[in-house]
Every structure is written in C-alpha cells, then in structure tokens.
Design brief:
The chain is mainly alpha-helical. The protein contains six helices and two strands; from the N terminus they run αββααααα. β1 and β2 (43-45) form a beta hairpin. The radius of gyration is 16 Å and the shape is globular.
Length: 157
Amino acid sequence: MNKVRNTQKYSMGMADLLKNSEDLMVQVKTNLKEAENTSYEDRVFTYARGGPGGVIPFREASEKAWVALYQAVDVLIDHFLKHTVKAHYERKLKLRELEEKFADLASYRFYDRYAARAVHIRNNTNYYTSKDLEFLAWEIGKANELISDIKKLVSKK
C-alpha cells in the first residue's frame, strides 16, 4: 500500500508509517463489521466464506491488518537495526537478529508473535483458510497488541 512501486522504499517516513498502521487497524474494524452476518438467499452466515457479501470485507480486513503489521515491524527494525527490510523472510531474520542483539527486547518475543500473525492473517489474505470472523478478529486483536508494543518502544527511545 505505502511501498513505492518497484522499490523497497516507503512513500512516507517511519513515524508516519507507524501512524498509518494504526489508521489501517481502525479500517480493519469497519471491514470486520461489514463482513458480519452476511446473507445469501435468506441464509445468514457468520463465516465470511459463506456468502458473497462477506468475502470482500473479510479479505480487505485481512489484507489491511497484514499491511499494518508488517509496516509496524519495519519501523521497529529500522529504529533499532537501521535496516530497510525487503521482504517477509528478511523481516523474520531481522527480528531474530533484533532479539539476539537487544536482550531487553527478547522478552517481547517479536519474532514469535510476528510469525504467528503472519500464518493466521497473511495466509488468510491469499488462501482463504477456514477461519471465521471471530477467529480473524482475535488474531487482529493480537496484531494490535504487537503494534502497540512497537509504538511504545519506538517512541521512548
């Protein structure tokens, strides 16, 4: 979303990027609400995959949550390691490096938390795994906690 086309650069600074992540997470709540109780042929579905009306907002919620999460993690890595991340795999490597170099950050378990959200949110944007809205909302809540922890750390140092 905020990456400059055909580059690994962002179109905004890191401070703005973190704020953008928070703004995206607000939009995610709206998308989840839109996907709730979708109906098709007089049947109400709680699963976004169940009815045509819920698929789009469900996917948008997943995509925006994923973008918000990786942007926030990129801000964290840039802040502590002064490194611009190029891709998901490198992001994981840098989170491991971050935890090895900064003992006080290891207790946050950034790698584990990011990797878990990647499986449950990122994969859902691409493969529509069998998650329902309640589970996706729970995962998004966990992503919000991670973004909040990153914001606290980046703003105090």
